C-alpha cells in the first residue's frame, strides 16, 4: 500500500505546483501533519441534497487515504451527528468539517503568520488546521476554541496523537479567548455576520483578523483586517471564493415552510439573476441582512423570520414582478444595495472593505467614504 508519508509529500507537491504556498514553512507543515489522524474513520460526502456517511472500512485503506490527501473539504458532522454515528444519508446542515488544506494555508498566509507569533484560532473542528499552526509555531503559541464539546474532545485526542500540545478551550469563540491575549492574529474557521468586539480587544496593535464575513443569504467574502493604534480594524476583501459554515451563534433561525403571500406587487427594477453572481449575492445580503434566501421554482424569495416579512419574484414575460408583504420591504432594501453596486460598475468583492470599531461596523464600496452599509449588531 502507498504510505501516508508518500501521499502527504505528493499532495504538498501538488499544492506547491498550483502556487498554494508562498512560504515554505507551510509546505513543510502540510508534509508533516497526517490529515488521516484528524478525519477519524468516517466522513460525509454530498449525495444530491443529502450527506452520505462514508467509512474507511467500506472504502479500504488505499481509497480512503487518497480521499484524505485530496484538496477537499470533508464534512464530519451534520446537525450535530458525526459521520460514524449516522444511520444513513442525512438532509441537514453541516456543522463541522475538515477544511480543504489549500484554504487552511491560504488563511494562514493571509494572516501573515510568522515564526514567534501567538495565534487564536476560532473553530478547532477536527484539529487539522490547529496542528498545521502547531507545526510552525509550537503548541505554546497556539490557542484554539471549539463550540462543540464532543468535537473538542476528539480534536484534543487527535492533536495529542500527532504530538501537538496547543491550548484548547471549549466555548463560544465569538468571545475570543482572553488567556493568550494579546494575539498577533485571530483566524476564524467559521464565518461571522459581524466581527466580535472581543477579537479586537484581544489583538495587539498591528495584528490581524482573518475571517469570512457571511450572513443569512450565505453570501460570503474573505477579509483580512488590521488593528490600528486607535483600536479600529480596517481591511479589504480578497478575491478568493472562500466560504465557511456560520459560527453557531450567528446561524440562521429555524425557518417555517415558505408560503407565498400576494402582498403588494410591482415591477422589479433588477433581475433576481443578479443574486446568482457571488458578489451580487453578497451585496443583496448587505441590503437585507435579516433575510434568508429561498429558491422557488422560477424565482427567489426572501424571508425575515422575526417579522414574518417576505418578498418573492416571478417572471412576467418581459421582466420580473416582485410581491412584498410584512413590515419590512425586503426587495426594496435589496434593490437599493444592488443599485449602488451597479452604479459603481458592478465590481467584484475586492472593491469592498470594512471598518470595525467597538461600537460600529460598516462594509464600504470603493473607500471608507464610499457608499456603506452598517452590519447588524
Ligand atoms: C469548518 S469547521 C473547522 C475546521 C477546522 N479548523 C479543521 O481544520 O478541521 C468549523 C468549526 O467551527 C466550530 N464553531 C462554530 N461556531 C463556533 C463558535 N462560536 N466558537 C467556536 N467554534 C465554533 C464548529 O463547531 C466547527 O467545528
From TrEMBL:
Biological processes annotated in GO: methylation
Its family?
A: Belongs to the methyltransferase superfamily. L-isoaspartyl/D-aspartyl protein methyltransferase family.
- The region annotated as signal peptide is none
- Keywords per UniProt: Cytoplasm, Methyltransferase, S-adenosyl-L-methionine, Transferase
UniProt cross-references to NCBIfam families, sorted A to Z: methyltr_grsp (TIGR04188)
Where is this protein found? Cytoplasm
A molecular function annotated in GO for this UniProt entry is: methyltransferase activity
* PANTHER family linked to this entry: PROTEIN-L-ISOASPARTATE O-METHYLTRANSFERASE (PTHR11579), PROTEIN-L-ISOASPARTATE(D-ASPARTATE) O-METHYLTRANSFERASE (PTHR11579:SF0)
- Main subcellular location of this protein, as a coarse class: cytoplasm
User: How is this protein named in the record?
Assistant: Protein-L-isoaspartate O-methyltransferase
Q: Name one Pfam family in it.
A: PCMT
Known EC number: 2.1.1.77
Top enzyme class, one word, equals transferase
Amino acid at each position: 500500500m502507498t504510505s501516508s508519508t508518500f501521499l502527504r509529500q505528493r499532495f504538498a507537491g501538488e499544492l506547491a505546483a498550483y502556487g498554494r504556498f508562498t512560504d515554505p514553512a507551510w509546505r513543510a507543515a502540510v508534509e508533516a501533519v497526517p490529515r488521516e489522524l484528524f478525519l477519524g474513520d468516517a466522513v460525509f460526502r454530498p449525495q444530491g441534497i443529502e450527506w452520505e456517511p462514508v467509512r474507511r472500512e467500506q472504502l479500504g485503506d488505499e481509497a480512503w487515504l487518497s480521499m484524505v490527501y485530496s484538496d477537499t473539504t470533508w464534512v464530519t458532522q451534520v446537525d450535530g451527528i458525526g459521520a460514524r454515528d449516522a444511520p444513513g444519508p442525512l438532509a441537514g446542515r453541516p456543522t463541522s468539517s475538515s477544511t480543504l488544506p489549500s484554504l487552511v494555508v491560504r488563511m494562514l498566509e493571509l494572516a501573515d503568520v510568522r515564526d514567534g507569533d501567538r495565534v487564536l484560532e476560532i473553530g478547532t473542528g477536527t484539529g487539522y488546521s490547529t496542528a498545521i499552526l502547531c507545526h510552525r509555531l509550537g503548541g505554546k503559541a497556539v490557542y484554539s476554541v471549539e463550540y462543540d464539546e464532543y468535537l473538542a474532545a476528539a480534536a484534543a485526542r487527535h492533536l495529542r496523537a500527532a504530538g501537538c500540545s496547543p491550548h484548547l478551550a471549549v466555548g463560544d469563540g465569538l468571545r475570543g479567548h482572553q488567556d493568550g491575549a494579546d494575539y498577533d492574529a485571530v483566524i476564524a474557521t467559521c464565518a461571522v455576520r459581524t466581527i466580535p468586539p472581543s477579537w479586537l480587544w484581544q489583538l495587539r496593535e498591528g495584528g490581524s483578523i482573518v475571517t469570512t464575513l457571511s450572513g443569512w443569504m450565505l453570501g460570503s467574502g474573505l477579509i483580512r483586517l488590521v488593528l490600528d493604534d486607535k483600536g479600529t480594524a480596517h481591511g479589504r476583501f480578497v478575491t478568493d471564493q472562500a466560504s465557511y459554515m456560520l459560527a453557531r451563534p450567528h446561524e440562521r433561525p429555524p425557518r417555517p415552510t415558505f408560503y407565498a403571500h400576494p402582498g403588494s406587487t410591482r415591477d422589479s427594477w433588477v433581475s433576481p439573476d443578479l443574486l446568482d453572481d457571488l458578489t451580487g449575492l453578497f451585496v443583496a445580503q448587505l441590503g437585507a441582512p435579516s433575510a434568508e434566501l429561498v429558491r422557488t421554482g422560477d424565482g427567489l424569495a426572501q424571508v425575515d423570520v422575526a417579522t414574518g416579512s417576505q418578498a418573492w419574484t416571478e417572471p412576467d414575460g418581459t421582466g420580473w414582478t416582485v410581491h412584498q408583504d410584512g413590515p419590512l420591504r425586503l426587495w426594496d432594501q435589496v434593490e437599493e444595495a444592488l443599485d449602488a453596486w451597479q452604479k459603481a460598475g458592478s465590481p467584484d468583492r475586492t472593491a469592498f472593505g470594512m471598518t470595525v470599531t467597538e461600537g460600529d461596523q460598516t462594509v464600504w464600496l470603493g473607500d471608507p467614504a464610499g457608499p456603506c452599509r452598517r452590519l447588524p449588531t
